[in-house]
Amino acid sequence: MKVIFFTLVLFLLITSLWGFYMSIRPPKIISTVTPKELGLDYEEVALKTADGLALSGWFIPNKSTDAKTIVLLHGYPADKGDILPALVFLNEKYNLFLFDFRHFGQSGGSYSTAGAKESADFASAMEYLKSRGINEVGVWGFSMGGAVGLMAASQRPEIKAVVSEASYARLDLMARELYRLSLLDYPLAWLTELWTKLFLGIDISKASPVEAAKNIQIPILIIHSKNDEMIPFKHALLLQDAFKNNPRANFWFQENLSHGQFDDAYQKKIMEFFLNNL
Asked: Homologous superfamily of 42-170+207-277 in CATH?
């Protein structure tokens, strides 16, 4: 019995440490797509976070000087170039601002926190936009970016509308999704949270769009597919319940799309939401 016990403990320790390491050091993807390749005028932007990281961004102006601005937040693991082709249609009406979260794309940082520290990245983006005289924005975010957008909306009055697509509801729940080993999910997730506190000083339970929702009364559009294989649909249901007291929260749940897929109605749905709420 002792051999079995110590084997199980060793398995849990090694597996959770490996899971922790792979979570904070996912592959660094740098897309080849740039606004120039899509025929867009743009400006390269260098941001600096409060904790000293250099972030890479693009400001894509609309032809109208009166156009409002939408901040586009990529997912995990991806970068700003990954999402631009699918969202370039928004430039017909809006300025677009994109940046690479820490560790991803052309930004600095030796690790990702999947949303826990990325709010500091968003804050640096807002400071840059304010320096351009932009004090109100809409936000579109996918996956991790969707979670960051929701958490930021609870703290930043500059945000006037948010589209959050395939977001998690709580980062600590995503720790369980990392393993998917039935009953072993719980001790593995607990250990992963422990390593995050010990090595990074981060409590991932505080990265919680569900908690943020209590303080959000602006227009919100939550998009999720019931077949999402990366972030299970239960996260969308938790968010739906969290927004029950926000009469301006909208939900678009789809049946047969995987993580990151969209259908023919997508562009119209997103554009109408921002036109009506930003």
From this structure: Alpha/Beta hydrolase fold, catalytic domain (3.40.50.1820)
